[in-house]
Design goal:
Blueprint: H1 2-23, H2 35-57, H3 75-86, H4 90-119, H5 124-131, H6 137-164, H7 167-179, H8 191-216, H9 224-230
Pfam families: DUF4197 (PF13852)
InterPro entries: DUF4197
């Protein structure tokens, strides 16, 4: 009986070792996914977000009727808005809010190529860490790496757009009316800076929407590369 006992023990040990080897093998769908593939998959996801979601912002009311990114008045201008409405100038106050959103919609249209180029900054070294991060890890990476440079490029576009959509004239009238009201403190807001920051925030939010979709929904992975790469984080 002893030879059989030792044979069974050896077979059992071999099976356990074999199972351990199997457990350590890459799972189905992850074989052949390199850092190069992962980096390109993340870039593809961000490009998809820009193409599908950010493009929505460039349409009429893309900001104004999208509650996720709608530009509202900063604290300094909220008192201006309230004062105008109190003295019967609600229509002018409404127009002031709308033209700020119009400027952002116009500017994003012209600045989209800047975001597309920025996507290329994702490195192979950061690829796997981003992939296994939160639902908006790639967007956060893009935001950290690009906000400063994008602001410098985006600001003059916003400034031009404020003029193009007539926002500068509307707000010159609003500020003039408000500053003429007795017992109010004069305001002189930097609309270019404010709208630039709000527009950038809106763009990143919409890219994050698409990134989360790709991470959480297999149906949103519309290419073989996206399917292979994001299967790693399922």
């Amino acid at each position: 009986m002893k030879p059989y006992f030792f044979a069974l023990l050896l077979l059992s040990t071999s099976c356990a070792e074999l199972q351990q080897v199997v457990n350590n093998l890459p799972q189905a769908g992850t074989i052949g996914v390199s850092d190069f593939d992962i980096a390109n998959g993340l870039r593809q996801a961000l490009d998809k977000g820009i193409d599908k979601q950010v493009s929505k912002l460039t349409k009429p009311d893309g900001f104004y009727k999208n509650q996720l990114v709608k530009i509202v008045l900063p604290t300094e201008l909220q008192k201006v808005d309230k004062t105008l409405r109190d003295i019967g100038l609600s229509k002018l106050a409404d127009e002031g809010l709308k033209v700020l959103n119009r400027a952002a919609e116009d500017a994003v249209k012209e600045a989209t190529p800047i975001f597309v180029n920025a996507v290329k900054q994702i490195t192979f070294a950061d690829a796997r860490q981003i992939l296994t991060g939160s639902d908006n890890a790639a967007t956060n990476y893009l935001e950290r790496r690009t906000t400063s440079s994008l602001y410098q490029k985006f600001s003059p576009v916003i400034n031009s757009s404020l003029s193009k959509v007539g926002a500068d004239k509307v707000w010159a009238s609003i500020i003039s009316r408000y500053n003429a009201v007795p017992f109010t403190t004069n305001v002189n807001p930097n609309l270019t800076d404010y709208v630039t920051n709000q527009a950038l925030n809106g763009v990143y939010k919409m890219i994050a929407v698409e990134e989360k979709q790709i991470r959480t929904s297999i149906q949103a992975r519309t290419t073989d590369l996206l399917k292979r790469v994001f299967a790693l984080q399922d």
